[in-house]
Structure formats: C-alpha cells, structure tokens
Amino acid sequence: MEEIYIVMLVALFALAITDLVVGVSNDAINFLNSAIGSKAVSMRTIMIVASVGVAVGAIFSSGLMEVARKGIFLPGQFYFNEIMIIFMAVMITDVLLLDFFNSLGLPTSTTVSIVFELLGAAVCMAAIKIYTQSDGDLSALTEYINTAKATEIIVGILMAVVIAFLIGAIVQYISRLVFSFQFEKKIKYVGAVFGGLSLTAILYFILIKGMKSVPYISEATMDYVNTHTVIIVLIGFVIFTGISQFLMSVLKLNILRTIIIIGTFALALAFAGNDLVNFIGVPIAAWQSFDLWQTAHSATGVLPSEFAMTGLSGSVPTPEILLVGAGAVMVVTLWFSSKARSVVDTGINLARQGDGVERFEPNWLSRGIVRYSVLIGNAVSTILPDRMTRKIENKFDKPSSHLRSKRFDAPAFDMVRASVNLVVASVLISIGTNMKLPLSTTYVTFMVAMGTSLADRAWDRESAVYRVAGVLNVVGGWFVTAIVAFTAAAIFGAIIYFGGTIALVVLIIIALVLVVRSGIIHSRKAKEEKTRKRFNKSDIVTINEITSETSENISKVIAGINKMYSKTVDQLGYYDLSKLKKNYKRIEKLESEVDELKDNIFYFIKSLDEDSVEASKFYILTLDHLQDMVQSIGFITRNSYNHVHNNHKNLKFNQIRDLKKVDDKMQILFDEITHTFDNHEFGNIDSLLNEKQDLMDYVSELIQKQIQRIRTSESSPKNTKLYFGILLETKDLIGSTMSLLQLFQEFYNEARTTTY
C-alpha cells in the first residue's frame, strides 16, 4: 500500500520539474519583455540579471507554500488517499495547460491555473464524497471548499486587469509629456528626479513584496518596516535622487538603463518568490501529507482512506534544499527555453512602437473598440484649445532619425516606456501585496505594458485593430485558463479516483508524451521561423545586398513552387485526397511568406542608402512576379484538391502522362534556376531564358491536343475544366518565371555596369 504513494510522490516531483520548465517559459514575460524590447542592455546582461533575481527569489521563498495546502480547500475534510488524488490531478493538468499556452506563445497566469486546478480537483473529490453519502446534497460543498478565497481571487483578477491597464496608460502619458520622444535632451534636467522616484518605487517594491516571503526576516524587522514605511520611502527618494545625479554627472551613466536593469532584477526576484508555489507547492504539500500519514500509520496502523488531513492546516516549513533545486531548474530554463522567447515575443510584438507584421487578425470587437475610440478621441480634440492640442502633439512627434532607423533590429520601444513598465508594475504588485489582494504578476506586468503602449500611441490607425485583437486574445486566454484548469483537473481527478493505478499511470504517460511531442514540434517551428526571419530580412542598404537578398527570395519561392507542382501532379494521378489536402494547407504558408515580403516594402525603401533608391522599383516588381507565380501554383493546388474532394472522375491516363512530362521539364528548368541563384551564377540566366519558348510551345501543344480529344472522343466536362486550368496556369507560371529572370538579368547587368 505504501509503495503506490511513494510512486505517486516520485511522479509528482517529476511533474514538478516539468512544470517548472513550462511555467518559467510562460512567466518569463513578467520580467524580460521591457529590457528585451527596449534593448537597453545586451541580451546576455539581461539574462544574467534575471537569473540572479530568480535564484535569490527562489532561495528566500517559502512563505506562500500554504496556498497549495489550505488556501483553496479545507484539508481536514479530506482523507489522505483523496488528497493525493487531488494533487496528482492538479499537477497533470498544470503541466499540460501551461505547455499548451507556451506552444501558442501566449502568456497566461500560473497563479490562476494552479488555483483553479486545486479548486476543480477539490470540488470533484468533494462531490464524489457527497454523492457516496446518503443525502447527496451539493450545498455541502461549502464545507469542503474555501469559497471566500476563490471569490476573492476572481475579483482580484478583474481588478488587476483594469487597474494595471489604466495606471500604466496614465503614468506613461504623463512621462511622455515630460520627456517627449527626444528624451536625451530632457534627461539631464529631470533624469535625477525620475531616477529617484523610480528607484525608490523599486525599493518599496522589494521591501514590501520581497521581505514578506523571506523566512529569515524577524517579525520585529517587518513590524518596523511596516510602521516606518513612509519615512523609509522619503529617505530613499532623497538618497536615490542624489545617487542618480551622481551616476549621470560623474560616471556619465544612462539613468534609464540603470532603472531597467534594477527593475528587471526586482521583478525576477518577485516572480520566483511569489510564483514558485505554483510549481512546487503541490508536490511539497503531497510529500508533507505522506509524512503525516506515514507517522500515524506507523503508530496506529490507520489506513489512507481513514486518515483525515487536518495536519496540513498548520504551518510547515519548506526544506531549503528543495528551494535551491527549484531555483536552479528555473535559471537553466530561463537560459535555454525557446518557448520562453516566443512568449516574450508576443508581449513585445503587441507593445512595439509603430507598425510591422501583425500576429493577430482583427475581429468585430477589436474593430468596434478602435472605431469608437477614434470617435471619442476626435470629440475630445475638438473640446481642447488648439494651442494645448498642438503642444501635446509636439510631445508625441517622433524625430526623423527615429523613422529612418525603424528596422526589424531596432528597439520595439524606448527606455522611457521600459522604465515606466517596470516601475509601475513593481508599485502595483507592492500595493496589492500590502493590501493582501491576490495578484498575478503576469496580469499586472502584461496589462501595464499594454496601457503604456496605448498612451505612447504605439497603437496608431495602422495597427490598432491588430493590437487590440491581440490583447483581447491574451485576456480571453486568461479566463479560458481558469475554466479549462477547473474542468480538466476535475475530470482527471474523477478518472484517477475511479480508474485507480492504471488510470494514473496512463495519464502520466500521456502528459509526458504530449509535453515531449510539443517540444519537438516547437523546436521544428523555431527552426522554420529562424529561416523565415532571414527570408523576411529588410535591413538592406546597398546594391550588392539587394542582389543577394532578392536571389535568396527567388530561390526559396521557386524551390517551393517546384516541389508543390510535382507533388500535386503525382497526387492527382493517384487520386490521393489526404496528400492533396496537405498541399492545400501548405500553399497558404508559401503565400504568407510572399505577403510578408510585400508588407515590408515600406521598411525596405526606408532602409536604402541614397545610391540604391532606384532599386526599390526592381524589388517591388520582383515581389509582384513572385506573387503571380505563387498565385498560379495556388490555383493549380486548390483546384486539384477540390476536384478530388468533390469526388469527380480522375483525369485520363493520357492527361496525367502529359502533365507528368510538363512536370519533368519544369523540374529541370526550376532546378537550374534554383542552382543559379543559390550559387550566384547569374551569367547562366541567358541559357535559362532560351529554354522558355520550348516549354511554352510544349504546353500550347497539350492545350491543342486536349481540344482535339474533346471533339473526337467522349470526355468529362469537369476533367476538361481541371486539365485546361492546370495547363493555362502552368503557362502563366512559366511566363511569370521568365519575366522575373529577365528583370533580374537587367538589374544585375546594370548594377555591374554602375559598379565598374
């Protein structure tokens, strides 16, 4: 009997390590996005600072571990075997849920997930207990669940979302009015005061937020800090203002960069100190439960189904070695998790200054919000005096140098906004903690960043609907987290209760397999994204770089078209619906790559040097030809899929054979083109152009042959439509390819003449 619970403990701690990995990957947005987005310091420095903060916070964290033991349910109402089922259901759900959000690259709250998982599993187990009794009255759930705490958490979530957004927007708006976008000129006059305020706020944050969770701080010290908080803050402001002035005047340091570094450390420390319970609190509570039962079992022989877990209601210290180990896992994850970077990318993408490639599609709600916001903004502008309006507008004017340097490797936002993000988030979390309000660091930091983005006019008319849609998706995901966490934990709890050991083993295996599978898929996508980012690069400034970049684009698109055409012809011949469906989906990826290139034309033209501006026309025409080619292969692929999907008769053997001959000839031609552009052997373009007419003539012959078939033999109208469509689009595809080669040859020859 004892062995099964030892196995469950081992499984719980194994799941805890996995949970630490997926949890840190998701919560990295809390303390990384401001520093990374502003590019105030190098990535290496950011990671070192965050790692130190996480390590310190983890080591001094244990005061919140009682949340898993008694914060959500009343442990005395459950027996040991029931408590272990609750904890197993919670950990399996948490690992799967957080990994799912990481795979989507969306930030969610580990606090909310663990709370609602505990709530769901406990409600499930309480309901089973109630229904096994004679009355079966569900109103008795209040005897098992801490309903007041659950209600407090839900209210806290709603308050955090709204308050963090509004405060972030207000503070950023005032900061921008003070500094404007040319903050380098103003920083020498108001930088010391701003630094004093910011560093004092962070000090307050560390004292109030950090010291509460440090077990080594005496109650007398905490009482002194709480009693003299105002004096400590005022003294801190004076001291930090002086230090800020010294750093700026004597050491010539950028005070904003200093604030960002210290703020990143403070948030990382708070994350580890506050959220560590979300990852290891449940396994530690399970271990403590096992220890209590084992002691009682040795003394009295009490069974797991008879031992009430009243002992969990007390205060039990967390072993230091577990905290050190958890901190080590968190730091390693922070350095090596690619999913952490993708979650951070989401926050930075939604907060970045200016437009670009948008990740989220607009919806009716985002369009409505933007439309009415514009109307309200216009109404307010008519009320304000013209002089005041012009003065405000001047504060938000971006210098021309800012516009010229707007490339993909530029900061997403400046250091003023990054500092405000960190300071406001720190203060709000401090106030919430001091008032004993249940706050999620994810909610606060994300919504502050969104509020500052709005106030900073990062969401202009070009990007607002996309950004608002993104925020709605993320916020909606938070509430989905609560619902899914509650439901899944309840279901898993029921499965384990009724299925026993076999069900438990199956669930653990499924969870681990899904996490590993998700990691493999994400790694594959990350490699594709890395390639695609190189493909989408717009940081081009010279003729040679334009030639190199364009040749890469041409080679990649033609290689993709070549592969797609050959697969479509083969699968059409075999009447293979499943593979044609895969092609149908893959063509969207090829189209999106070319669309993104066209979306980036603005930045491409902005980034050209003065001697290369004429090349913009060449680049635009190249993308136009590439799009024509992709549209042709898209037509062929989609029509072939729809033909088979609608169960029409397959093409005749002669038609398939003729298409295969076209495919063979096109493969030879496209392989030569790809080789030419991959190796920059542009002198071969003349010979490639000579092959054009032969291939075009052959396709024309096939069209004429099909006309004869229709007149002399019976043929299906649907087959004829598909066959003619493929041939005509093939002809257009060849024509667009040859036009592209001619355009490139002319540009290349002209560039060489200009160079020499």
TrEMBL record:
Concerning InterPro entries, the annotation shows: Phos_transporter
Where are the membrane-spanning stretches?
A: 6-24, 45-63, 83-102, 114-133, 153-175, 187-208, 228-248, 255-273, 321-338, 468-489, 495-516
* Any one GO molecular-function label of the UniProt entry: phosphate transmembrane transporter activity
User: Its domain of life?
Assistant: Bacteria
The UniProt entry's GO CC annotations, sorted and at most eight, read: membrane
**Signal peptide coordinates:** none
Q: Which GO terms describe its biological process?
A: phosphate ion transmembrane transport
Q: Where in the cell is it found?
A: Membrane
Q: Which UniProt keywords apply?
A: Membrane, Phosphate transport, Transmembrane, Transmembrane helix, Transport
Q: How does it sit in the membrane?
A: Multi-pass membrane protein
Q: Which family does it belong to?
A: Belongs to the inorganic phosphate transporter (PiT) (TC 2.A.20) family.
Protein name in UniProt: Phosphate transporter
* Species per Swiss-Prot/TrEMBL record: Christiangramia lutea
